[in-house]
């Protein structure tokens, strides 16, 4: 039973996984769209890998159900699922050549596909991951980045319905990781395969995904597009995990519609979008992104002293201090600097942000 | 002290030992093998190939050794592999050490005593009597090649279990997940991943057991009762009983040559299987 383009490619329905007394994943409900690039993001132990392993068939949910293309697959063992995985440390077979590794999946099919077809598919896969002609190499003759591509080729050659990526870039250095991120994204559009990525690297998730599923303690905290999560985090946990932010404690003064006003330390007022569960009179937290704050010499706003300055090229990041608010970050663009000039550590100035720049969140 | 001198000094004990205990005796044996038996037994200098020409008279010992040593090795392998697999893969890690100790416990007793136990077990009051009580006649077991084979497998099993255990324990279990992920059912993953990756252990175990078996004399002497004898028994007989040292030396040289040839061939073969991969880490 194969669904049409609107039906989900995979679904978790109330999926829970217990390992003895430990609940690794709790009541996960998630619909994965055909052809999307979805990331599970969270710190280690948040259940993201368990979710992935349930989709792959390495773990059976203790409760709930897993659906693949409309079919309940709880009891379908891994080797019979139309799903392939790129493992964290690649798990390439050291006794096989690159080509033998890549053709492994095709060679498991029964009836066996013709040898010529397999060889052609392997060569195509090698070209796709930009390793043409490397088929006869041994695994240990390949660099880390090349091994990563082989692992990718070994998975995509089978044209899986889902491609699962378990921290695939964790072992690569920063530059290589960045290149690979771009390549993966291009590849995903080109192949049209649904990609599911598990990562603890928020930058990676933000730059690559169509949607991100943020997890904590085995549960889904928030799910949405990178922009949604960045602009409208549900709580402090999400705001902290996605991008950089400054947090200020305070008490909610009033809530009007989806906007709230909070009074922070030193009676500084924060006005902005209200997150989940924010009510007047309650303790709350204002989150203001560093790029939403501007630093100027003219009076008005919160008086601050520059503590440190980090030049980032396009931007300059200032760490500033206010006696009431404590230390916080300001990200100033080149243009802003052109107007105000450079601030040196020890300089004083005024930090300002417009109403609506803040997010008022509960302390969760 | 120069590094060169230090290296020389460090290597000196081992070199002296090897020269005195291995090379020199080998040379002596080789020289003796061309000599003649002195009238009162022992060696008298000569140069003759007669001892080698007479090797055929000891054909039975060579035949027994060349049949039972490989057979014993294969039998050890067939029994040891599943055991090692169980210990390395299936057994609860909590119990693993205890189970491993149980495998070596027999070594704490002398092989002599253990062989006596087998004589009793396989003798008239042991297994044959039991079989007789069940009404299947009473087969003669002791002093047969079968008894020697049992003794061999019993005595050498741990030497086969350990190298295989080590290679299986080192096997990255994620490779099996990768294999399953790529559509391979468990039994095929075993054949395509586990088995080839445990070949280094199998090769080491086979080599250890085979080489030691080629020189074995105690087990055939006890359980073969002089009817099933190995080259080792022929050597004991020639050197100690008939005191024909030159002929004994020729037999010993022939055994060394046979071992060199088989072990070299075996190493070539396993290296080809491994595809030149002797020192691959599993990442």
Give the tags.
heterodimer, A: 364 residues, alpha+beta, Rossmann fold, OB fold (Dihydrolipoamide Acetyltransferase, E2P), 2 domains, 6-stranded mixed beta sheet, 5-stranded mixed beta barrel, B: 283 residues, mainly alpha, MetI-like fold, two-stranded antiparallel ribbon, 13 helices, 73% helix, globular, disordered C terminus
Secondary-structure blueprint of this entry?
The complex is a heterodimer of chains A (364) and B (283).
Chain A: E1 10-19, E2 22-32, E3 37-41, H1 48-56, E4 63-68, E5 71-72, E6 83-86, H2 98-107, H3 115-128, H4 144-156, E7 162-166, H5 174-191, E8 194-199, H6 202-208, E9 211-216, E10 219-224, H7 226-231, H8 236-241, E11 246-256, E12 259-263, E13 269-274, E14 283-288, E15 294-296, E16 302-311, E17 315-322, E18 326-333, H9 334-340, E19 348-352, E20 358-361
Parallel strand pairs in A: 3-8, 3-9, 6-7, 7-8, 13-20
Antiparallel strand pairs in A: 1-2, 1-4, 4-5, 9-10, 11-12, 11-14, 12-13, 14-20, 15-19, 16-17, 16-19, 17-18
Chain B: H1 3-32, E1 36-37, E2 43-44, H2 50-53, H3 59-90, H4 93-104, H5 111-122, H6 127-133, H7 145-170, H8 173-181, H9 186-197, H10 199-214, H11 218-223, H12 231-241, H13 245-274
Antiparallel strand pairs in B: 1-2
How would you describe what is shown here?
The complex is a heterodimer of chains A (364) and B (283). By secondary structure, chain A is of the alpha+beta class. Chain A has two domains: 10-231, 3-Layer(aba) Sandwich (Rossmann fold); 244-361, Beta Barrel (OB fold (Dihydrolipoamide Acetyltransferase, E2P)). Chain A has helices spanning 48-56, 98-107, 115-128, 144-156, 174-191, 202-208, 226-231, 236-241, 334-340, and strands at residues 10-19, 22-32, 37-41, 63-68, 71-72, 83-86, 162-166, 194-199, 211-216, 219-224, 246-256, 259-263, 269-274, 283-288, 294-296, 302-311, 315-322, 326-333, 348-352, 358-361. Chain A has a six-stranded mixed β-sheet with strand order 6-7-8-3-9-10, with helices on both faces. In chain A, a hairpin with a 2-residue loop joins strand 9 and strand 10. Chain A is globular and about 75 Å long. Chain B has one domain (59-274): MetI-like (MetI-like fold, Orthogonal Bundle), CATH 1.10.3720. In chain B, a hairpin with a 5-residue loop joins strand 1 and strand 2. A two-stranded antiparallel ribbon of chain B has the order 1-2. Chain B has helices at residues 3-32, 50-53, 59-90, 93-104, 111-122, 127-133, 145-170, 173-181, 186-197, 199-214, 218-223, 231-241, 245-274; strands spanning 36-37, 43-44. Chain B has 283 residues and is mostly helical. Chain B has 13 helices and two strands, in the order αββαααααααααααα. In chain B, helix 3 packs parallel to helix 7 (145-170), helix 3 packs across helix 12 and helix 10 packs antiparallel against helix 13.
């Amino acid at each position: 039973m194969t669904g049409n383009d609107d039906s989900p490619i995979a679904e978790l329905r109330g999926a829970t996984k217990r390992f003895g007394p430990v609940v690794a994943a709790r009541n996960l409900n998630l619909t994965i769209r055909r052809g999307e690039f979805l990331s599970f993001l969270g710190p280690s132990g948040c259940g993201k890998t368990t979710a992935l392993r349930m989709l792959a068939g390495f773990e059976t949910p203790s409760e709930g159900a897993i659906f693949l293309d409309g079919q309940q697959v709880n009891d379908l063992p891994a080797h019979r699922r139309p799903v392939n995985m790129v493992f964290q440390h690649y798990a390439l077979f050291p006794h096989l050549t690159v080509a033998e590794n890549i053709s492994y999946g095709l060679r498991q099919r029964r009836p066996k596909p013709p040898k010529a077809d397999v060889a052609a598919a392997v060569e195509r896969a090698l070209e796709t991951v930009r390793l043409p002609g490397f088929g006869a190499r041994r695994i240990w003759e390949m660099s880390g980045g090349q091994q990563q591509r082989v692992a990718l080729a070994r998975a995509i050659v089978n044209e899986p319905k889902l491609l699962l990526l378990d921290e695939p870039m964790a072992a690569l250095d920063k530059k290589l990781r960045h290149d690979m991120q771009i390549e993966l994204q291009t590849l995903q559009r080109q192949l049209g395969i649904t990609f599911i990525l598990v990562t603890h690297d928020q930058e990676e998730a933000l730059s690559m995904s169509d949607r991100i599923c943020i997890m904590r303690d085995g549960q889904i905290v928030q799910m949405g597009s990178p922009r949604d999560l960045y602009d409208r985090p549900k709580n402090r946990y999400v705001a902290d995990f996605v991008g950089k932010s400054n947090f200020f404690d305070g008490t909610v003064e009033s809530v009007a519609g989806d906007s709230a006003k909070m009074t922070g330390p030193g009676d500084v007022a924060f006005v902005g979008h209200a997150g989940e569960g924010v009510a007047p009179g309650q303790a709350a937290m204002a989150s203001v992104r560093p790029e939403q704050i501007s630093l100027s010499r003219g009076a008005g706003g919160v008086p601050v002293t520059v503590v440190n300055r980090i030049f980032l090229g396009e931007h300059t990041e200032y760490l500033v201090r206010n006696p009431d608010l404590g230390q916080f970050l300001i990200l100033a663009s080149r243009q802003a600097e052109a107007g105000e000039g450079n601030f040196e550590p020890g300089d004083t100035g005024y930090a300002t942000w417009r109403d609506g720049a803040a997010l008022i969140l509960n302390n969760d | 002290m120069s590094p060169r001198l230090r290296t020389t000094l460090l290597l000196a004990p081992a070199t002296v030992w090897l020269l005195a205990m291995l090379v020199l005796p080998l040379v002596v044996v080789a020289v003796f093998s061309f000599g003649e038996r002195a009238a009162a037994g022992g060696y008298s200098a000569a140069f003759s190939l007669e001892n080698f020409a007479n090797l055929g008279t000891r054909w039975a010992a060579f035949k027994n050794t060349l049949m039972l040593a490989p057979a014993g090795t294969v039998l050890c392998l067939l029994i040891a592999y599943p055991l090692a697999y169980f210990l390395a893969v299936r057994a609860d890690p909590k119990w693993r050490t205890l189970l491993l100790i149980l495998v070596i416990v027999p070594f704490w007793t002398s092989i002599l005593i253990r062989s006596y136990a087998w004589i009793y077990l396989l003798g008239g009051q042991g297994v044959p009597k039991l079989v007789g009580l069940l009404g299947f006649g009473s087969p003669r077991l002791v002093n047969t090649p079968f008894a020697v084979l049992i003794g061999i497998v019993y005595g050498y099993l741990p030497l086969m279990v350990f190298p295989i255990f080590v290679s299986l324990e080192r096997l990255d279990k994620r490779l099996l997940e990768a294999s399953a992920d790529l559509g391979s059912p468990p039994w095929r993953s075993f054949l395509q991943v586990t088995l080839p990756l445990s070949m280094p252990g199998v090769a080491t175990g086979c080599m250890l057991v085979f080489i030691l078996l080629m020189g074995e004399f105690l087990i055939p002497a006890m359980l073969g009762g002089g009817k099933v004898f190995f080259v080792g028994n022929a050597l004991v007989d020639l050197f100690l009983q008939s005191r024909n040292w030159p002929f004994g030396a020729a037999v010993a040289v022939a055994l060394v040559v046979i071992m060199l040839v088989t072990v070299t061939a075996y190493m070539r073969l396993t290296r080809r299987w491994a595809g030149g991969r002797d020192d691959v880490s599993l990442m």
